[in-house]
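Fold this complex.
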Amino acid sequence: MTSWQLNKDGRSLGQALAFAALVTAALTANAQEAGAQNAPPEREITNVTGDLYRFRQIRHIGMFLVTPEGIIVVDPTNSELAGWLKVQLDERFGLPVRYVIYSHSHNDHASGGEFFADTATFIGHENMRANLQRPPEDAPLLPREQLWDANGDGLIQENEIDIAMYSNNFARRDSDGNGGLNRAEIWAARFGGNQVPPDITYTNRATVRLGGKTVELHYTGRNHSDDMTVVLFPEERTIYTVDFLTPNRPPRTQLDGGFLPEWVDSLRRVEQLDFDIISPGHESPGTKAHVTEQREYLEELVGAVEAGIAEGRTREELMESILMEDYVHLIEYDYSRALNVAGAYEILISNQ
Ligand SMILES: [Zn+2]
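Structure:
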């Protein structure tokens, strides 16, 4: 089902498809002029199954479930998208958002909740509370960050880091302008912002019931973050997973902020859940086979990097030699493979 079927103007599917074809032709003409043929719309809503939908802006995706008593939104994402979504939900369904569920506290998925704060209860994993607290300016660097701190001054200068999240816009990240990032400034890159904090937190598992429908929240352990929720829609046999599990794509770049080897165990717990469809926070939906593939990818990566560390190999040597050749078909393999090795090396060696 496409977003066109959401229109409430009485168009039949056939009419909608004919209209969509006309619009597509017009868009294609415009896109060709702009040199961006087949570019998807900037924002859209698509149906997964039943009353369960994905909403997307560029490469970030959240979900919502419609019930007779209101709507459950998962990951408001950012203020621009959440404001657009609120208008869409009001127009299409005329129902209030009763719950906002968070996948995790990172600012590129958990922002925008202010648009629903007047009607919704916010729910997330208990570790979100601490993660949303800005550390003091004199908080020590984390063990992995200490690896980067080559001159040992307790700050990360621009030439000490090769992770784009920090090295891009370095001057903006360095909010006190002293030429180095402290723990609080590093925290702000992912966690800073105005996320509405959760009203309710849970530890291992929680269930939300609304309008005769059920949503389950599962904590499967530390992975991309330590506050990650897998959202399971049991009647729709669908899970929503963000950043730690993307079908057909390895985790992005240096696995910054991630936890190894626990990430592998977390994927193993997802394999035990009862579902058919993964609807991810990035990229396209997949199946349970994609969970197994991701777990095997990460298991091989961790095993190879651990073996390399035991042999005394350097990070750079392992980036050259660990090729993950069974996974060349994955999206962004060329972009992330060597960076995944570098990140796994840093995480594993700083755990020692
Ligand atoms: Zn994240």
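Residues 143-191 form a domain with the Recoverin; domain 1 fold (CATH 1.10.238.10).
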